[in-house]
Prior knowledge:
Layout: E1 16-17, E2 44-50, E3 68-75, E4 78-82, E5 92-95, E6 99-104, E7 114-120, E8 124-130, H1 133-147, E9 162-170, E10 173-185, E11 188-192, E12 200-203, E13 209-213, E14 218-223, E15 226-231, H2 235-248, H3 268-280, H4 294-307, H5 320-332, H6 344-349, H7 356-369, H8 372-390, H9 392-395, H10 399-411, H11 419-429, H12 431-434, H13 439-460, E16 470-475, E17 483-487, H14 494-504, E18 507-508, E19 515-521, E20 526-529, H15 536-542, E21 547-553, H16 557-566, E22 572-580, E23 594-600, E24 604-608, E25 618-621, E26 625-629, E27 641-648, E28 654-661, H17 664-679, H18 686-693
Parallel strand pairs: 16-21
Antiparallel strand pairs: 1-18, 2-3, 2-8, 3-4, 4-5, 6-7, 6-9, 7-8, 9-10, 9-15, 10-11, 11-12, 13-14, 14-15, 16-17, 19-20, 19-21, 22-23, 22-28, 23-24, 24-25, 26-27, 27-28
Helix pairs in contact: 3-5, 3-8, 4-5, 5-10, 8-11, 10-11, 13-15, 16-17, 16-18
GO biological process, one term: signal transduction
Protein name: ArfGAP with RhoGAP domain, ankyrin repeat and PH domain 1
Subcellular location: Cytoplasm
Amino acid sequence: MWPVSPLSPCPAGSFMSHQQKTPRLEVGTSEEKPYSVPLPSVTHNGFLYKTPSMAKPVGERKGQEEFSRRWCTLQDGVLSYYENDRNAVPNGEIKVEEIVCLVNNPPNAHGIESTFEIYIESERLYLFGLESPDSAREWLKSIAKSFVHPRAEELLALDFERIGRLHYKGGLNLERAKEGWFALAGSTLHVCFEDSERQEPLQLRKLQELSIQGDNEVLVLVERRRTLYIQGERKLDFLGWVHAIQKAAGSAGDTLSEQQLTESDVPLLVDRCIDYITQCGLTSEGIYRKSGQNSKTTSLLEMLRRDARSVRLKEGEHQVDDVANTLKRFFRDLGDGLFTRQWGQDWLRATALEDEEAKISEYRRLLGTLPTVNRATLKALINHLFRVQRFSGENQMNTHNLAIVFGPTLFQTDGKDYKAGRVVEDLISHYVKIFNVNDQEMKKQQDEIMAIMKMREAASSGTQQAGDFICTVYLEEKKTEAEQHVKIPATMTAEELTFEILDRRKIVMKEKDYWSCFEVNEREEAERPLHYSEKVLPILHCLGTESYLVVKKQMSMENMLIYLASRVGDCKHGMMKFREERNLLGLGLSTGFHDRYFILNHTCLRLYKEVRSHKPEKEWPVRNLKVYLGMKKKLRPPTCWGFTVFYENEKHEKQQWYLCCDTQADLREWFATFLHVQVGSGHGTEHAVFQELGCGGMLG
């Protein structure tokens, strides 16, 4: 049996079968009104063009002759339309409290220049239009203001494509569907949740997953650390929302900012190609110099441009040179280029600077001028090329050879002038300085490179297939029936491994389930939840025979989330009982636990002899610490709420010590703070807290 975490009040409970990721949305009764406060009284009138109401989506373009001119008035919560402005009896009316969605169509979508659609609860759709865009905009604003709940009035300021109310589930509560107000503007879905005073933007191009489940009843939007389930009150308007969100979540053009993006603002297309080549092609001879098949490159690029989110590059199905060629062609065809037309010549002129430090300084200045997505993409690409040249002994692609290929590609030139190549060569050679890469990032990269090299050595010795690394991961506890044998690619994160294990065993998350991947050290009788973004392969190569990985629930996550959300500042201080490992720290303490005062902030952990001490006896950078829950029983800890702490500096000098807290609550607070300061986020929203504390898995 693996050790039970001291954070856990009891062992993990029973769990249900998973593949129904989509919860059923149980909505309120028909008697429940969507408005708890009176709607604002809005008055507007004028002539509008109108078609007969419909019971299905507008599938075809409506000609001008299909519209009839009607006098329309909006007052006292009713939109009425008349034969003309002299009639006293309306031809029909729409109660604003029955409106569920308002859609602003693109210009000239129909025979009238500016048109908009109104959806109501009884599954009817009304199409109106005007030849004047300004007048149509005034009608849109007035109608929206008349039916949108006052708590969602923030949405009215948006240049929305559609706005309305939908039922959703998400966050910490999946028991009951709530009503929210949604507005789609560009590639952002703005949401006013039922229990929130402010709207929250969802960047649709950054979604990890977008799917329809439950017989087309539920739209599932998966961000990193959050899943949102949306259902329309009626099929008619819901189908429109689905189509519009799917379109907005796709790539919209040929510039970088119009692509589907990762959480770190790198185009998903670029991320997919780099990940695949890192996993399968770092040692491929002539990588990026060789050309792939033109037809396969064209086909793959079209697929990735259309929806990179749905494309999975797999060894055996895709050739390394085809993927490499796809990445190069993407950059060569990029609208405005990676370095932008505005700044491209400045980058080329920087190569003339003879003083190396001045040139690096100029590159750093130019890097700061690039748009966010361009800057993130350039760093991701140069980071990748930096890795590729580390394997030049096998792939024959040193820094100079890579620069010859990528200079003309990135600057979109004919290659006759080597200035473009010189820029790329400088960026790779001075990668650490130009991109301000810290020691922690470099160590992480070194670990990943070492892991890949070990994997390639094992492959060449015939002990395993090329590209494969199979490891055993346990579900909930270490026993034979809980074993899962998983192929670990070089790019797999702890979060992806957690998803893989739960999907295999069809585990469904209940409300407030927090699944994580843990590194368990049997010898130390301690365990560590992995951060969701940690790469698994380097960890596996560092594990001793006494350690293994297990996917299980993190039982105290909710308490830690509550603590982090309510904390003041990023610091924690207090007394803990401290013990050295064989007196290695030189503090002269006798064997056993001693009271010491600790201060932890986002840069270091300091140890003081007592509260009144001004000078710390010891301090350690937090980036060099690994904190495990639990400790060896033979140490006879004074309480059961303890940590085992490992420290390793850049010279690979190692230290180990133990800390004990007086209460379980104190342990949780210290551990949550350790996780928080090591991840380095500083936000206070529920989503951000999930993001910073998310440990290798999924949050229900």
